[in-house]
Amino acid sequence: MRYLRPSLVLLGTVLVLGVRAFAADDLAAVFAKIDAAAPGFRGFSADLRKLKYTPVIPDPDIQQGTAVVRRSKPHELQMRLKFDPPDEQVVAADPSKVEIYYPKTNTIQPYELAKLSKPMIEQVMMVGWGATSQELKTAYDVSYGGPEQTATGQKATRLVLIPKDKGLAKQLPKFEIWIPMEGPTAGVAVQVKVYEQGGDYTLATYSNMKLRNVPDSEVKLNAPKDAHREKAIRY
Predict the structure, then answer these.
(1) 104, 141, 168, 202 - which has most CB atoms within 10 Å?
(2) What pLDDT sits at residue 233?
């Protein structure tokens, strides 16, 4: 029996090293897909399913709608999200501001992001869309999560991203992205999960995604001219 323990330790070490080697190879394969997709990424349109989970609320809040994302230049994304009734709203975002239009009250709520550092905003917005693997590894500790289906049944590989920026990590300690390895959206995130402090998280799933050049007009808020604009909230 005294020889059994060293043997088990040796066997366990071999197995762990083998698992790590496979994980490293798999992660390298995902990075290769990301790097192949990044240079040509200009944007996309897709159906959107957003799930917001809060530990103190038994049932998560789920919204359905559409999303349009535009890469205007490296490290800069613009997006327009339109959510269906009953919680109808339109969200337009870029690196400097977020605007939300509520059709029921014909009201615009603007948020200015001036207090947040530009690198922090870029790190959040680039996750899975147009960034190279090196850019991801510079901003995050990236680990391999394995093959998984998204909430709408798409085959993809999950990556776990832990922010290196301490300021970002205090607010958003972890991200997960789902990257298809095959098909027209290979290398582009089709699902993004953002964790907040306290256990809250948001899971955004993009289906029927069409990669394309998106004009600036498609990511504007386009609210009615008579909409009431509230005082901006600064972050």
Answers:
(1) 168
(2) 85
Query: Average pLDDT of each block of 10 consecutive residues along the chain (235 residues)?
Result: 51 50 78 95 95 90 95 86 94 90 96 70 80 93 94 94 91 94 96 92 95 95 95 84
Whether 85 is covered by a domain: the verdict is: yes
Question: For position 191, which CATH number holds?
Answer: 2.50.20.10
Number of structural domains in the chain: 1
Q: Which pLDDT does position 2 carry in this prediction?
A: 46
Domain limits for position 94:
10-18+21-234
- In this structure, are residues 83 and 212 in contact, taking their beta carbons and an 8 Å threshold? no
3 state SS of 231:
coil
Q: What is the helix (H) or strand (E) element at residue 175, kind and residue range?
A: strand 174-179
CA dist., res. 221 & res. 80, Å (int): 7
**Cis peptide before 110, with omega less than 30 degrees from 0?**
no
Please return the burial class of 179, using the count of CB atoms within 10 Å of its CB with bins 0-12, 13-18 and 19+: buried
154 inside domain: yes
- Are the beta carbons of 207 and 190 closer than 8 angstroms? yes
CA–CA separation, 80 and 67 (whole Å): 6
